[in-house]
Amino acid sequence: MKLPNYVSGEWKEGTGAGEPLVDPVTGEELARISSQGIDVGGALEYARSNGGPTLQKLTYRERADLLGKIADVLTANRDEYFRICLLNQGANQADASFDVDGAIYTIKYYAKIGRALAEQKILKEGAEIPLSKTNVFSGQHFLMPAKGAAVFINAFNFPAWGFCEKAAPALLSGVPVVVKPASPTAWLTQRMVEDIVKSGTVPAGSLSILCGSARDLLDHVREGDSISFTGSADTATRIRSHANVLRRSVRVNIEADSINSAILGSDAAPGSDVFDLLVKEVVREMTLKAGQKCTAIRRVLVPRQFMQAAGEAIAARLASLKVGNPRNPEVKVGPVVNKAQQAACVEGLKLLKQECTVLFGGDEGFQPLDADAQKSAFVQPTLLASKNGLDAKFVHDVEVFGPAATLVPYDNTAELIAIARRGMGSLVASIFSNDANFVREVILGIGDLHGRLLVVDSSVGSQHTGHGNVVPNCLHGGPGRAGGGEELAALRAVLLYHRRFVVQGPPSRIGDLAAMSADASILYS
Predict the structure, then answer these.
(1) Are residues 238 and 111 in the same domain?
(2) What DSSP string describes 4-67?
(3) Share of the chain above pLDDT 90, in %
(4) pTM for the structure as a whole
């Protein structure tokens, strides 16, 4: 079976043998994808000239209703998406729900926001600005939907949520979407697009999908387009430095690698509720989706005197979880996405072992439950302990994109802050402490190099949203190594697909345009 692309309003199968999509548990080939022979430039132009104008004839409220219908389509096919997650990702119910249900929730969230923007087509930002002594001349900032296309180059770990969290604000803004999912898990994204298109929910050209290689996609982007990329820092650099992207100043939003941290305060002694909350969260982040999350905890920063207790507590929880075929109801941890990713994890762990002690796991020859270790792509959950702390090299530079985390000791708050900053920019750090002064000092010390900070104390308990859980009404992104991008958080996501401009002139003329505009401040609520 070769999965077709949907471009220029037509389903088109790529030529050639294509790339295989496999079951990471059995090694069985499930389908193939190919973008060879597809007119990529024509697909982008069709999106701009057909999808864009049709979408922008609609008001924000009408486009919000469109998102609501998309959510209904996805909800109706939820069971099929779970089946594909199991086959193509080795995902159990919890793994699949995190991706699929998160995707549907995000679509619904932006539908709700769009309805608040009412029957308007552009946004007004801020108050009118007097520009003359007698107020006969003034200025007003506006936000207009871009007249280009939104190009998404997505990662393999979230084929549902990664697609929807970008598509929702783009479609709400009236900007057509061209998505290029990562090849290993493209089946789920392709099926979701197929269901949306066949439902007749979206206008022709407003949603396209290219499966397989991106080929010369970036050669055809223009100044009105935007690129949103999730993946490795190396690929991000190639996108940013692409000659056509630079020449046309195409807007680029990046979410890249991230060495995220969980931080335990010195007040959270072993046996305390906050200590136990950190242990539980570390294990969840190591094992949910087999640790294949850009927000997963990679470093666990603990006071030196708690290192042994923390290691024993985390290892005990890991030891209670069965790793293997997710078709077995006893299994809690599945495989990584394919053999290539398994090999990358093994190589990364080899580097970490050069400067760390293995506290749990790390056995390349371990036997997963109900699966052939030779054919499957399992990585045993591995907990390490750093010997060198701040002076370690690989711990702060190498991300094992799988079920692995490293304990790192600190002796004082200043050293802790230096260690957290050693990640050179992260998506998220979580702080577990009841000490208000400690929490305040850490936030002020690391906030500028993190996109999100999660604070957990005894009053929060287990009711927090989670270290690795990205919610649509809060910022997702991070500076430095994490890519420097900003997504979600309503306003920021919508702004990616709008262009800001100012109108200067008589207040009466500005008032005419302002009367046709929704107030952008709604997006802050």
Answers:
(1) yes
(2) PEEETTEEE---SS-EEEE-TTT--EEEEE--TT--HHHHHHHIIIIIHHHHHTS-HHHHHHHH
(3) 82
(4) 0.92
